[in-house]
Write a structure and sequence with these properties.
Mean pLDDT: 79
Oligomer: single chain
Radius of gyration: 38 Å
Number of strands: 16
Shape: extended
Distance between the termini: 23 Å
Number of helices: 20
Length: 676
């Protein structure tokens, strides 16, 4: 996708007709737009959002008609606001137009009609085709979906929002989806959703429904419970991701409070001692939890053996006293004896034709000790299992008593530590320094919030575990029910094929998604180093939450957003890294991985205002080489002068936005600075 030209008529401060042609040169791929304060720089940048998606989120006043034009209108006058954008995509030229008619009624009230939207296209043969509204909307979404546009059309405020979202992980799922769509993984993702056995509306889900329709009400109820469990599990996982981010934030905030407190001389010693006590307390609680887990496991797995110990002993003694029970022959059954009698010859060759022979009498005696008339062999197995049970429960009581004693001892130590910690906290809170008290109060609030989040996290994980166990049992029960129904045979075969396809696609997706994520991580680190000169390493986890590590300290942190320039650098590296990877995939014309949407332009409003000259130079060096087309809207002084200096040979076309008359702030003009 390349932007070729934008045309504005009476759009906000741009009274009358205005045009701007963008550079499409490969060598000089930057269009630089310099603007005076109040000349409409941000409005012009937002015109892209309006013409493509009808969005005016950035405008407080939702009227798009130029104010001077509106003032000159008399009763029953009509004026039209329009923006047209000409683009080239996949060798087809598109003209995208959105317009809105404003009419002043006889009472002088201004009314706006519904906007009109259309797309026309011209192919390589010069044939033009016009599309209706629904078709036009579909075409725009196929070229650049609205939810992806924020990564290619953005301003300083959006960068700030994105930096908080990326570094906090609050919008990690959105970033994951964007990467999938831009880098060509969406097809596999959609295929997985199409087949997903956890979803009732999927292919496998519909096969399940067909099988249930042919089966019993019990199967339908089991399936309903299965899908409800999956729905709740997915909701829990989303909430767990949020809680993990919150917990990490609370822990960092608590540590920051401790670091601040230790810098106050009058409480330095107390805070140091308090930090040691809290560390010891945490260790004791971990030990207690481990002992409780051991106790719970032993209680659930061995208690019944211990309580039945007397009965097992008596049973083993009784069984051992009966010699008859030891005469069973493994794997010999009544059906075997019947076969030999009918055949008339034993496996040893003895003649069994005479019913009064010793050989026949011996076989008849053997029937007493083999299944189904006797369970001698099985009883021998039981005796061995009983002995093992007695052996495993031999020291059960002593072990449980020791475990309980250990837990009580730890509990006493925990109480003692908590009491001492409370005394230290009380002393610190009595300090006359208000700043110390405020920091301590903040720490206390963070600790309360941390406990609540950790408790909720434990409950959610426990709930997931129970639901997964329930689903496992449901699957087992369903298999038994389904196999009882002959009508289900064909559906079961088809479902197995669908499940096999799902597993194959899932394996392929996970491999390629991991490959893309690792590649993106490498690109982001390389670009970040180019922009910010290193010092920080960036990692992307499986959920697309971005973490940063200070290289010298090798300490994970997300507090980089406290430094605006650094956090903005991360965002630039993230966006530019995605664009670079998309461009590289597009260049592989024969690759099945190449995204269908091709390359994207980069349109930035005031992207350099948060950086010093050194960073601006680095950004100006990097960006033109990454995106095929770059359009930068920037203040003429001082940022514009710096950008001109460093972009220099990359600028193909330059424009200036200025007020037609300095005294009139509602009438802007666009003037071309000349080709470079």
């Amino acid at each position: 996708m390349q932007l070729k030209k934008i045309t504005l008529d009476n759009f906000r401060p741009f009274k009358g007709h205005h045009e701007m042609i963008f550079s499409t040169s490969e060598d000089k791929n930057v269009t630089l737009v310099l603007a005076e304060n109040g000349a409409g720089k941000t409005t012009l940048a937002q015109a892209f959002q309006w013409v493509l998606y009808g969005k005016t989120d950035g405008f407080i006043n939702k009227s798009l008609l130029n104010t001077l034009v509106e003032k000159d209108m008399i009763a029953n006058d009509m004026q039209t606001v329009s923006v047209s954008l000409e683009i080239e995509h996949n060798d087809i030229d598109y003209t995208i137009t959105r317009s809105q008619v404003y009419k002043k009624d006889s009472l002088g009230n201004m009314k706006a009609e519904s906007p009109k939207f259309s797309v026309s296209e011209k192919d390589s043969y010069g044939q033009t085709k016009y599309h209706e509204y629904a078709e036009s909307t579909s075409i725009i979404n196929s070229i650049l979906p609205e939810d992806l546009s924020k990564y290619f059309f953005f301003d300083g405020e959006r960068i700030n929002d994105m930096s908080k979202q990326v570094l906090s992980g609050s919008k990690a799922s959105d970033f994951k989806e964007a990467v999938q769509n831009i880098l060509g993984l969406d097809a596999l993702s959609q295929a997985l959703d199409h087949l997903n056995p956890s979803l009732s509306a999927s292919v496998i889900g519909r096969y399940n429904s067909q099988i249930d329709d042919n089966g019993s009400q019990e199967a339908k109820e089991l399936r309903r419970r299965f899908y409800n469990n999956n729905e709740k599990i997915e909701k829990n996982k989303v909430r767990i991701a949020e809680l993990e981010d919150q917990i990490a934030f609370y822990k960092r905030s608590i540590d920051e409070c401790k670091e601040k407190l230790i810098n106050f001389k009058d409480i330095e010693e107390q805070q140091q001692r308090l930090n040691v006590l809290e560390k010891d307390l945490s260790h004791l609680k971990d030990m207690k939890q481990k002992n409780i887990s051991n106790f719970t496991f032993a209680f659930s797995s061995i208690t019944y053996k211990f309580l039945s110990k007397k009965m097992i002993k008596e049973a083993v003694e009784d069984l051992s006293s009966s010699g008859d029970l030891d005469n069973g022959i493994p794997d010999i059954r009544k059906s075997t004896i019947d076969f030999l009698r009918k055949r008339g010859t034993c496996i040893c060759g003895a003649d069994l034709s005479d019913n009064n022979s010793d050989a026949v009498k011996h076989l008849e005696e053997l029937l007493k000790f083999i299944p189904p008339q006797s369970l001698g062999t099985q009883i021998n197995f039981f005796k061995q299992a009983a002995k093992n049970s007695l052996r495993s429960s031999e020291n059960f009581f002593e072990n449980m008593k020791d475990n309980i004693s250990t837990i009580r001892t730890i509990d006493n130590q925990v109480d003692e530590k908590e009491h001492t910690i409370a005394e230290y906290n009380t002393n610190i809170m009595k300090n006359k320094n208000i700043e110390i008290v405020d920091i301590k109060n903040n720490q206390t609030e963070y600790e309360k919030a941390l406990r609540l989040s950790e408790n909720e996290l434990i409950e959610l994980k426990s709930d997931i575990s129970l639901r997964e166990k329930d689903n496992s049992k449901i699957n087992s029960d369903l298999t038994k029910l389904e196999l009882q129904e002959k009508k289900n045979d064909s559906f079961e075969i088809q479902r197995k094929y669908a499940k096999a396809a799902y597993e194959m696609i899932k394996d392929s997706y996970e491999y390629r998604e991991n490959e893309v994520r690792n590649k993106l991580e490498q690109e982001i680190n390389t670009l970040f180093e180019s922009i910010y000169d290193g010092g920080v390493t960036i990692s992307i986890d499986n959920n697309y939450r971005i973490k940063t590590y200070v290289d010298e300290l090798e300490n994970e942190t997300s507090s980089i957003d406290s430094n605006t320039a650094k956090s903005y650098s991360v965002i630039f590296a993230f966006i530019v890294g995605v664009i670079k990877m998309a461009r590289e995939k597009t260049a592989k014309k024969d690759s099945i991985d190449a995204p269908t949407n091709g390359e994207y332009p980069l349109v930035m409003d005031a992207p350099l205002s948060s950086f010093d000259q050194k960073r601006i130079k680095n950004i100006c060096d990097v960006i033109p080489g990454i995106a095929r087309q770059v359009i930068i809207f920037i203040k003429d002084k001082p940022d514009g002068e710096i950008a001109q200096k460093y972009l220099n040979d990359k600028v193909g076309i330059e424009y200036n936005l200025s007020l037609r008359t300095p005294e009139v702030p509602l009438d802007s003009v666009i003037s071309r600075g000349g080709d470079k």
